[in-house]
Amino acid sequence: MARYEVVIIGGGPAGLTAGLYTSRAGLKSLLVERGMFGGQIVNARLVENYPGFPEGISGFELGSLMHQQATKYGLETVTAEVTGLALGQPYQIFTTERSFEAEVIIIAAGSEYRKLGVPGEEVLLGHGVSYCATCDGFFFRGREVAVVGGGDVAITDALELAQHASKVYVIHRRGQLRAGQVLQQRAFAHPKIEFIWNTVVEEIMGEQLVKALRLRNVKTRQLSTLEVAGVFVSVGLKPNSQPFADIVELSETGHIVTDELMATSVPGVFAAGDIRGKSARQIASAVGDGATAALSAFSYL
Question: What are the catalytic residues?
Answer without folding.
Answer: 132, 135-136
